[in-house]
Amino acid sequence: MTYRAHSARYDTMQYRYSGKSGLKLPVISLGLWQNFGGTRDYPSAFEILSYAFDAGITHFDLANNYGPPPGAAEELFGDVMARDFRPYRDEMIISSKAGWGMWPGPYGDLGSRKYLIASADQSLKRMGLEYVDIFYSHRFDPETPLEETMGALAQLHRQGKALYVGISSYPEKQTREAYRILGEMGVPCLIHQPSYSILNRWIEDDDTIGACGDLGIGIMAFSPLAQGILSGKYNHKDGLSGTRVEEKNSSLRRSELAPNVLAAVDKLGDIAKARGQTMVQLALAWVLRRKEVTSALIGVRTLEQLKDNLGALSNLSLSESEVKAIEVATKGALLDHRPRV
Please, what is the average pLDDT of the chain? Predict the structure, then answer.
């Protein structure tokens, strides 16, 4: 059966401009980081992706190394594009990145022109696209001159392989410098993709969020659920048995679920319940409360999880007293996820 997008797909989603640009993004975007690799079959992937698009999620975020194995997420998304999404390409924002390890040797990692250009070409082939809407430098590389990394982004932009360019996990100083260098090349820095959540506030601590606000760079906040800690699955009572933290190769570390963190999660659950929301929905509302944040980037394994995330749209406002209650609940339980430079 040929897929036809829902006629009311833009009726309930909210959209925000990315910084000072003319590009609007949905306040909830869908990332394919860990959940669309080689173990995901087409029907289950399409079920989630099509439901997301039908709900107004127009932005799908990928990277060269998303899987597992690396490249698998882009290949699967490319299949969906070819078989079902192709008629809607111009309604979608598709992004990719390069900066983490992708292939062996000195040219498959970090921030060199060689790596970024080659990786972008490979990503386009895997997805069957002529261009991506956004291409990111996935992380700051202290060993490569920033002029070279930004020069590679500018080259991709000039060649039409990326309509916009951005950075990910860059601290405040490097964010300002990347913006300056790109500006001198005549290319705007559209967006910054840092981790940001109730429990992970490094962009507030070093004022990366302030820099983005000053410069007009939109923020695409990834891991708004703190790698699932704010999913509602974790609490003092039930412990960690049967949760993702016990899985092999899990990106969530047991050390991050210390008693003080679980105690904070319990309190946040009470705040969410008082609002008539799930903890997921509270976490998204908290991230999106900042005007600098364009979108919260979610990752889901199931359709039910996607529906839970979308439920946040019904109440994204937080009162002053609720924000203060969240501050009290999380005091002494914040995680340090700032990028290492």
Answer: 95
